[in-house]
Amino acid sequence: MPDHAEPTQSSPPGAFDAAANARASRRPVEAVLFDFHGTLAQVEEPRDWVLAAARTCGVSLDRVRATALADRLLTAGRAGGPLPARVPPALAELWSERDLYPHAHRGAYTGLAATVDAGIDGLADALYERVLSPDGWVPYPDTAPTFAALRSAGVKVAVVSNIGFDIRPFFAAWGLDGMVDAYVLSYEVGRCKPDPAIFWRACGMLGVDAERALMVGDTAADAGAVRAGCAVLVLPEAEPGRPNGLGAVLDLALPA
């Protein structure tokens, strides 16, 4: 742990300037690594997800039925949503490899959705396709300004995600792709958080030492970056459309 700064001589005996101490002990941040889901963006509301997927199957659901169906699908397991209450044995292998191979990711989540009898042909695939679309996600309102501030300050940005599909088109659709220097996706690099190797890979792609990087996420897997030598900020995920507290990143990463 870094040594704490001594109080200045102008401070009364025994006084402790916490802000000055934090500034003195903070290591410079040259790069910020961001988790994707729950940190930069959130999946759309479950009912909207079901309504949109059903429409692509040629079915118009009333909101009551859509809500009930969404609840059942969330229990079964949704990509970008809560973990399934139970993974059927037939899907166990796909589930274990979902963030390493695109076919496993698709097979696991369409298989889980198919365990819910919705009475709509093709719904499981339509629900998954919605997850692959930028329209199925909502970037947090503080994502863009945080990226812009880091870019202006010359701080590099990487997105580090345990995921089984390409999210680059999302950032392009949201006008954020020009502010991301690297994407480190588990299915492309063959490593999943909290494995230190995925964080080292991100730092290597950015050309910075891990000790000069800040990892920002919302889970214990993201906090695993500590083992790689990174500083870590964990922010609880917010609901779609609500700020996610990303301003705290600027407090830590940018000079006072």
Write the CATH homologous superfamily of the largest domain: HAD superfamily/HAD-like
Helical content class: 25-40%
- CATH architectural arrangement of the largest domain: 3-Layer(aba) Sandwich
Biggest sheet record:
5 strands, parallel
User: How many helices in DSSP terms?
Assistant: 12
List the helices and strands and how they pair.
Blueprint (H helix, E strand, L loop, with lengths): L17 H8 L5 E4 L6 E3 L2 H11 L6 H14 L15 H5 L5 H13 L8 H9 L5 E3 L3 H10 L3 E6 L6 H6 L8 E4 H4 L6 H11 L6 E5 L2 H4 L7 E4 L12 H7 L3
Parallel strand pairs: 1-4, 1-6, 4-5, 6-7
Antiparallel strand pairs: 2-3
Task: Throw out a few tags for this protein.
256 residues; alpha/beta; Rossmann fold; 5-stranded parallel beta sheet; two-stranded antiparallel sheet; 12 helices; 7 strands; 11% strand; globular; disordered N terminus
Give a structural overview.
The chain is α/β, with parallel strands linked by helices and 256 residues long. The protein folds into 2 domains: 27-42 and 137-253, Rossmann fold (3-Layer(aba) Sandwich); 44-136, no CATH class. Helix content is 40%, strand content 11%. It has a 5-stranded parallel beta sheet with strand order 5-4-1-6-7, with helices on both faces. A two-stranded antiparallel sheet has the order 2-3. Helix 8 (168-173) links the parallel strand 4 and strand 5 (182-185). Helix 2 crosses helix 3 (63-76), helix 2 packs across helix 6 and helix 5 crosses helix 6 (123-131). The longest helix has 14 residues, at 63-76.
